[in-house]
Specification:
The chain is 58% helix and 0% strand. By secondary structure, the protein is an all-alpha fold. The protein starts with a helix and ends with a helix. About 12% of the residues have low confidence. The chain binds heme C. Heme C binds next to helix 3 and helix 4.
């Protein structure tokens, strides 16, 4: 019994150490996107409810320079790959309003 609890605690700690942003962190990251991508906006594009793969591939593309843009390349370069993936997960799961 104690061993099982220890394993659960150990795996949670490892998960946190692997750099996966927790939901609170992702909300904080996503808040800085809202000034240009507010929930109800149609321009540039709403992010909520978009397919996860589309969001992730655009963000990775802006970051690695394969996609051009006015501001997004600079913005995407400010995040780690893990953070961009967490943002893609977050916006894909957020309900379009
Ligand atoms: C300063 C305004 C601004 C901020 C802040 C901003 N964006 Fe953008 N975003 C844009 C513009 C403008 C475009 C169109 C591409 C370009 O010109 O860079 C865009 C395009 C995108 C696209 C591609 C959509 C498509 O259909 O091509 C995604 C995905 C995206 N942004 C995600 C994000 C995320 C996630 C954040 C927060 C980390 C964010 N943006 C913050 C202005 C912004």
């Amino acid at each position: 019994m104690y061993r099982a609890i220890a394993i659960v605690i150990a795996s949670c700690t490892l998960g946190a150490m692997a750099g996966h942003a927790n939901p609170l962190d992702v909300r904080a990251l996503a808040a800085s996107c809202a000034s240009c991508h507010p929930p109800a906006a149609s321009l540039p594009v709403p992010l909520e409810g978009q397919p996860r793969e589309m969001l992730a591939s655009r963000l990775h593309g802006f970051r690695d320079g394969s996609l051009h843009g006015t501001v997004m390349p600079q913005i995407a370069k400010g995040y780690t790959i893990d953070e961009l993936d967490a943002l893609a997960d977050y916006f894909a799961q957020a309900r379009a309003r």
